[in-house]
Write a structure and sequence with these properties.
Helix content is 51%, strand content 13%. The protein is of the alpha/beta class. The two termini are 38 Å apart.
Length: 473
Amino acid sequence: MSALVIALAGHANVGKTSLVSALTRDATLAVNEAAGTTRSHYLKTYALAGEEVLAFVDTPGFEFASRINKWLDAHGGEGSDRLDGRAVLAAFLEDADTTARHDKEKEALRGVLRADVIAYVADVVLDPEGQVVQEVRLLRRAGVPMIGVLNNLHAGDDQSERWVEMLRREGVDNIVRLDALRFPAAQEESFFVALGVMRPEHGATFERIKALRATLDEQNLVRAAVATAETLVDCLAFQHVTSHGTEEEAKRYRSTANERFKEMLRQREEAGFRSIADIYGFAETALEGESLEVRSWSGAVTDDLFDPDALRRYGVSAGTLAAVGALTGSFVDVLGGFGVGTLIGGVSGAAAGLWLGRRVSTSIDAGTLKVGPVDAVQFPSVLLNRSVDCWRQVARRSHADRADVEVGAGDGERLDPREVQSLIRLARKCSKRPEWSGIGGRPGDPDRSRTVDGMTEVVEALLRKQLAQLDQR
């Protein structure tokens, strides 16, 4: 069976290209606030297992549908000589005298005439009168089944009920709500159900798409967990080592080395954020669109990674550390190796843990300066929770949404005591194996791989809890 061709048509700048982006999960399509971004109709195909099953025709917006309808009425003939809708539209497309004034509309109609279904996209903020009524009447002349799609439902001043009344009055009874800027999963299903009513021969295709979406969601979650675990191991194992002629030279370089150490971790964290965005299809755009930027709440991509606010927002709370102490019986396993000794009791252990969370170890041996690793108490939670913030914003993001991902926009504490215990245990392993860090190298140690697997389990469990909360909203 050939692909079902769906033409998205409507007034200029109502979100037709945005809907194609959302429905195909493609952030590379040109989406712009300026009216008339799409200059010619183009086909965006959707394939399953290498087989093209859907084709979306994105068309330029109509602006003067009433003039076109007048031309069609005047040139359609009368009585037995009257042309049917498609024939008179073909005559209009071939008429050279109307091309200069209606070039974009003609391009839209060419796209419509090649379609199996027309999806008329309505911006519910607009008044459903005047030219938009003329557009619906013009499109119905093509003799192609039409579905009404109500877009921009998030924008306020919603006139969707008036749109429903107008569309039904004009003979369009199949109407769905599908907001391009909101993650389209549930709305998308109603869209495909409506298409299945009009084109039942493609019903199996829509079921396959639904199943594929579920499979991809699962695969992407696991891939995001692995990418986050790789970031954690690289950062937690990292040690910046420099050689100097004397111990005094090493001391003079210590401040610079600390800043270099932090900058390299920031760069690795940023790469982790972008890996997550890429997994969900938000890579660099290809057709004039803008790339998705990942930045922090304060403007720069990772500038608060070492700030005190990062600990307050993302660090492990005193109460959680106290609970970890209750699980272990003491804080010797958590804080060992930092010169604190055995601390019995949750409150004192938690306070020590919070204090240690502000430290990056530095040592000088003759002319060798070593900066890192970061502490294994607070910093793993900071890295993990910031990555989850990034993931949370792209996992349920419409591909028509080009707003920045603002890391730091979400809540902090998301780990229970057992998860914190596992995270700290794995972080301590990393801190003893600087060769595990992929920052500036390509580690291949089997022990590192096992640690990444352990980190992945912690991350994946956290992502699944977050996903359940997102799906409840």
